[in-house]
Amino acid sequence: MKKFIYIGSGLTIVFYIIFLITNNILVEGAFYGSVLSYINCIGIKMITNMFLQKKKGKFFVLLSTLLKISLIALSTVLLVEYLSLDLIGFLSGFSVILIVFILLIQDK
């Protein structure tokens, strides 16, 4: 998980620096997509840890999962609709972090 935190944070910072330098709409979408994907992956890890612990009830885990999914979906709609982000850039940034997350899981 530490590798993911370092790599995900690094990619997000790189997207932000490139956006500040170029002021490109595609890179802005990639930055917001990577931030949202990073938050999504952290949420997945937290819910997985709650599910594996015997102390928490499964109903609480289900509610947490539904809340996370609805917040990510609402954030995506708000970002794409009201900030007029480039959809291709947003999906690219969102996918890059997920690919890193999946590859780091496969490394275990």
Short recap of the structure:
This protein has 108 residues and is mainly alpha-helical. 88% of the residues lie in helices and 0% in strands.
Structure description:
The protein has helices at residues 2-22, 25-52, 58-82, 87-107. It has 108 residues and is mostly helical. The chain has one domain (2-107). α1 packs antiparallel against α2 (25-52) and α2 runs parallel beside α4. The longest helix is centred in the middle third of the chain and has 28 residues, at 25-52.
Number of β-strand runs: 0
Quickly give the structural class. mainly alpha
**Count, helices:** 4
How far apart are the termini? 10 Å
Query: Could you tell me the radius of gyration in angstroms?
Result: 15 Å
Mean pLDDT: 83
